[in-house]
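Changelog-adjacent note: as of this version, every example in the card shows the full chain rather than a window. The one below runs 547 residues end to end.
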Amino acid sequence: MKIPAAHGRNFCLKVSKLRIIIDKVKKMAIFKKGKENKKQKNQQGQKTQFPVSNDDYLKKELYATVRENIDYLKIYQGECWDFVTVKFTLENNHQEIDVGLAYLAGLVDQKLLNKTVIDALNRNFLKAKKELPEGEERFRFFKSKVLIAIGIDEAESFGKLFNALLSGDMIVFLEGCNKCLIVGARMYQERAVEKPTTQITVMGSNDSFNENLLTNLSLLRKRIKNPNLIFKNYILGKESNTNVVLAYIKGLVDENVLQEVEKRIQKAELPEVTDASYLEVALREKQFSIFPKIFYSERPDTVANNILEGRIAILCDSSPEALIAPSVFIQFLHSTDDFHQKAFIASFFRLLRTMGFLLSLFVPSLYILLIFHHSELLPVNLLFSVAGQRIQTPLPAYLELFTVMVAFDLLREAGTRMPTAIGTSLSFVGAIIIGQSSVDAGLISPIIVIIVALTGIGALAIPNYKLNLATTITKYILAIISVAFGSFGFTLALVMLLVHLSSLRSFGVDYFAPFAPFSKEGLKDSLIRVHLENLRNKWRQKKQYPH
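Full-length structure tokens:
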């Protein structure tokens, strides 16, 4: 039968419309399916996504699966080039267990990793005589019978895990255990134990602390073989998580001082601690002072002696110096050489260093008082000599003195910042050439060169660098007061300085002891030093600081 043309066209139109409808339905179905797939992916992503913040990991407990634990580590360390994770399966006649390893390539001993961990896991797991259930039994088996090595620890939180991982240890995850094993496999690239550079002595040991905390603790253990020597660890710095150790002898340390130090450390809220100087900010007293109230030392023998005297040493990872608490003023004028000499010789050089400190502090002010305010106190011959030298100089006495002092301190600072060989030459040769040229040109008088040289030599006799800096600032303040107010202002400033030093305290101990408050027993190891056996015996009976 032949279909009319009109009917054929209508049929074709209907078929085409039907195809269009079918295509739209297919597209809608595909779109809906894609939307559902996308929703499912988002839901899956939300299941594996972990919250990330600076404090999230500190108290967060570990997961029971290897995959989740490693995924959580990758959120923080996944972009780090040296972060390595390994997943593998251990198999024996009874079962298969998934194991995960995580470590930082530059901090782990690769030989120890292969021999102690990888080989031990493969070899000792074969000795299992039964199937190990998930949980504590499986974890204990691996800790006691599989990884048989020195330095095995465990962690239940990511806070302890990250501290160990970033310190160079290797982390071992076990499937079905919400704990991990920490294997001590650290291999630090550290500086060798070298000679001290800032606290140089003629006699005594020639080793010093370096940037490795464990090495520094071993240097103290080497000198103090006492079972009561305690190393108490703290982790400070919200961002750096730095290990800080308090070292003291139990039964010998002042418990009140120990509690005060621990209290300040626990209350310290520092974003980072990368050096011992950061700890000084947290441990400092509320009283303002430019004088140092915490003693620094890079020498293990000095730190050991202070610990044996009942003080507390505070050591910080990545810092080659230790802090000593409490500290007193006279301690900053002592040297390690004092304990390698006879009492008479040590006392003489202590008095000599004290004289150098007083010269660097008061000589500029006394010169200004005698020349600018009270020239009548000088002998006539000396007065005429000084006046004759200053006839051709264009500057007043006080301005001349300040100019030369600033030039000297500038040369000293430049010599400190330059390499050792060049810096020493620059300091001395520069001072001689500039001073002589200035005198020949008539810019300064020869007496000024002598005054500044005495001040500089006295400052060089101060054994502690921080006290040296405080003395430099104080001498300028006293000199300015002497120019403005004369002998009355100088006397008043001196009284205020003594009152200030007497009012300071270091962790509850009087900073200016044994002078204020006065202690006859403490004088035995202050400006002078008695025999060591008398000093130690008296101190142990009196239970007080000799300084």
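Structural remarks: The first strand starts at residue 83 and ends at 91.
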